[in-house]
């Protein structure tokens, strides 16, 4: 899947314009990469469109420990959107990511997220 197709899916699923979807995608992937281990981020990076790969590359192995609320705050701030739009966007990005990287890689990576992501991840998986 090319970057444009990925962004289109995010835009459609989050109900936002393409440019907002692009910012939500970049913000979500950057924040996700910070929150999970370098190994998991690398595994995801190998399976996404080339243009999205740099957002999942992190210089250190350890994951940063921060909450669901902090995750959403970072994405909202990066994309310049409100919290509900950030949550829809993160769900849309996770849904497109699940579709792109496959179930095993997706569940391996999202297992490292705070438990509050459970419902969002389940919603993202169901949207596919």
TrEMBL record:
Q: Name one Pfam family in it.
A: DUF2267
- State what protein this is by name: DUF2267 domain-containing protein
Q: From which domain of life does this come? A: Bacteria
């Amino acid at each position: 899947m090319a970057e444009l197709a990925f962004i289109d899916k995010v835009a459609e699923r989050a109900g936002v314009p393409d440019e907002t979807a692009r910012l939500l995608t970049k913000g979500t992937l950057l924040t996700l990469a910070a929150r999970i281990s370098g190994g998991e981020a690398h595994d995801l990076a190998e399976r996404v469109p080339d243009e999205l790969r740099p957002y999942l590359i992190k210089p250190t192995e350890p994951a940063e420990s921060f909450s669901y609320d902090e995750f959403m705050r970072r994405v909202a701030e990066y994309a310049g959107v409100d919290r509900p739009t950030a949550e829809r966007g993160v769900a849309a990005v996770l849904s497109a990511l699940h579709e792109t990287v496959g179930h095993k890689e997706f569940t391996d990576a999202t297992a490292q997220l705070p438990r509050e992501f459970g419902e969002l991840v389940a919603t993202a998986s169901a949207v596919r």
